[in-house]
Amino acid sequence: MLTSKQKRYLRSMAHHLDPIFQVGKGGVNDHLIRHIQEAIEVRELIKITVLNNSGEDRSEVGTELAEKSGADLVQVIGKIVVLYKESRDQKKIELPR
């Protein structure tokens, strides 16, 4: 679990990132989860856009993405979901204590 201080730090880092995935009318599926897991292992911090045509609640989508990918949900703001997971191989982000 991330502390509020760590989430604040990650939100500031994610501000400049572009979303690399979109959740559309197909919703959350195994294919999307697999790609998120691969990307988050390399990047540690990613943004995902939830499109209007997904028809699902964005907070629920964010929670579902975090649970299924094994990541921590940093933030859901508007249509953007921010996820973080520490890399096993190459740690890039040093979180504050």
Automatic annotation (TrEMBL):
Pfam families: CRS1_YhbY. SMART domains: CRS1_YhbY (SM01103). SUPFAM superfamilies: YhbY-like. Residues 1-96 form the CRM domain. PROSITE patterns: CRM. InterPro entries: RNA-binding_CRM, RNA-binding_domain, RNA-binding_YhbY, YhbY-like_sf. It comes from Paenibacillus sp. SYP-B3998. Keywords: RNA-binding. One of its GO terms (molecular function) is RNA binding. The keyword GTP-binding does not apply. This is Ribosome assembly RNA-binding protein YhbY. Gene3D superfamilies: YhbY-like. Coiled coil: none annotated. PANTHER family: RNA-BINDING PROTEIN YHBY. The gene is yhbY.
